[in-house]
Amino acid sequence: MRYMLLIYVNEAAMAAAPTDKTYEISAAYGAYTDALKKSGAWVAGDRLKPTQAATSVRMVNGKTNVLDGPYADTKEQLAGFYMIEAEDADAAIAWAARCPAASAGTVELRPIWEQTM
Fold first, then answer.
1. H or E stretch including 63?
2. Is residue 105 helix, strand or coil?
3. Model pTM greater than 0.90?
4. Which of 59, 67, 92, 112 gets the highest tally of CB atoms within 10 A of its CB?
């Protein structure tokens, strides 16, 4: 079964982190990504640009409404994602717990609807 690991972190805290801490975090994500790939669990994943680069799009009364930035103001922002394959929810939770963001932010785990056609 496929799962999305949605990574939420505090952008302001990450931007203010000293260079050595940023390097340490980057190395941790590199090791985590390598572990996912070696296990065969990795399907896709990437880092997202900060929310200031986001655009929110909604349809209102049949017209496109475009807003700069994220729609909601929150303490943590969506910073990246992994799509993984896991045997079951327990295995996916184990991978989510190993993600570096789990100790500094939040990792939201969501099963993906599988198409049956």
1. strand 63-68
2. coil
3. no
4. 92
